[in-house]
Specification:
Blueprint lengths: L1 H21 L2 E9 L10 E7 L5 H17 L3 E4 L12 H11 L3 E12 L19 H12 L9 E11 L5 E10 L4 H18 L6
Parallel strand pairs: 2-3, 2-4
Antiparallel strand pairs: 1-6, 4-5, 5-6
Helix pairs in contact: 2-5
Length: 211
């Protein structure tokens, strides 16, 4: 009986090691911030995930997961799908109404930019905003939607690269942008579960979120 208990404990320990080894990790490897922005007042966020319209469940899970991470950090975050059906086109009039009626302080938007296979190393780099339309929410959103609707998505044994932008809700100006890398996720939830806390921690440390 004693030997059986020891065997069970060893088996359980081995199982936990396997689980810990399979968990994906996310790092913010590049970022840009508006140095002129008055930080520290963002207390309510609208969370938008930009995905192919044919994948509404992926968008639902992504927005819910990111919102949960910010809520756990003390910030009121709301998935856009709570307010806008995936069947609806998001236009400037609709967004303006949502931001105003719900008194959001900021909008956080994420999109897939790359799936990189067989990477042997990862290196940080200086992140520079490359296009003028990134400085306004609407120009960025519409161009990102076009890209999302023509792109593939997550697969196994890759590094998932996402771009996340934070906009001030009042003037729709970009105030922070970052590139994240999630290494070797098995499924989309691995990316979501590791990205959300990483973003919340980064924006809190950078002073954007209200305390």
């Amino acid at each position: 009986m004693h030997i059986k208990k020891i065997f069970l404990l060893i088996s359980l320990f081995t199982f936990l090691l396997i689980l810990s080894g399979c968990s994906a990790s996310t790092d913010i490897v590049g970022e840009w911030a508006d140095e002129q922005y008055q930080k520290g007042h963002i207390d309510k966020l609208l969370v938008i995930g930009i995905f192919n319209k044919e994948k509404p469940l992926l968008r639902r899970k992504f927005e819910d997961g990111i919102a949960e991470a910010f809520n756990n950090a003390g910030i009121n975050a709301v998935p856009s799908m709570d307010l806008i059906s995936y069947k609806e086109d998001i236009d400037s009039t609709k967004i303006e109404k949502i931001l105003s009626e719900n008194e959001f302080d900021g909008v956080i938007v994420s999109r897939l930019v790359a799936l990189e296979k067989n990477r042997e190393y990862k290196a940080g780099y200086a992140y520079v905003i490359p296009y003028n339309n990134y400085y306004g929410f609407y120009g960025y959103y519409y161009s990102a939607v076009q890209y999302a609707n023509s792109s593939g998505y997550l697969s196994k044994n890759v590094t998932v690269v996402l771009e996340t932008n934070l906009y001030d809700a009042k003037d729709k100006k970009l105030i922070w942008s970052g590139i994240s890398e999630t290494v070797d996720p098995d499924k989309a939830s691995d990316v979501i579960n590791s990205l959300g806390p990483a973003l919340a921690a980064k924006l809190s440390t950078e002073g954007f979120l209200a305390k």
